[in-house]
Amino acid sequence: MARLSQARLASLNKSFEDRTPEELFRWARETFGDRLAAISAMQQSGSVVCHMISRLKLDIPVVFVDTGVMFQETLDTRDRLAKEYGLKIITLQPKLTMQEQTEQMGVLYLDVEGQKRCCHMRKVEPMAAIRGKYDALIGSLRRSDGGKRGECPVLAVDPEMNALRINPLAMMEDEPLHNYIAEHKVIVNPLHSQGFSTIGCNRCTTPVLPTEPKRAGRWRHLGPWSMYCGINPTDLDDATSQAIDLPQDLVDRILGQKTDFMI
Asked: Is residue 50 annotated as part of the catalytic site, yes or no?
């Protein structure tokens, strides 16, 4: 195994800045083959990722974490994407139902530390079921989402999953995203048209006003210090380990050290 740090990705990330999402999708499929999956929370950016996978005929599975307290509209969106785009969507779930969790631990999401614990159990821990199955995970983070995502790199190491996160939409601004959705009639979560700029669990997500930040509706009752669930490594504090271990030949392919593959 070889150590791949975030620092070693700096040059490649810089070279990817002028690549299109489609080029990055194809690079990912060529580089990782069947050891590649996508992650979607069934929000509009995730729907675009799903549409591109289908349109480009990449045959990449999509992982969805059902926390057990998702909006019905989110589950319906998942089902439509699977059926109409011909996608294989893998649904992961936490060990405990929300009722079982509440009976054992109380209502966790009413304070900041409890929210972090709840999100970790219901969003992060279910991902352990696929740890080791994939070397790379395609996400839908965009810099225009703001906050900690304002400087989101195309490639980011994910120590908890020991995988590379790939964000092909990182450079896509809001207008091109909405234009793509309109042009291709992309299936999107209907909650977006009902005032929800971002969509998570039904316990902790509300609509936002036009004058508010996009993520103002996430954990609104806890204030601005609780804005992320922890499932995306680039949302975490800088203290998070910034390296993963992958086979040497795969690291060589990622960094282009022993191949002539160009996108």
From this structure: no
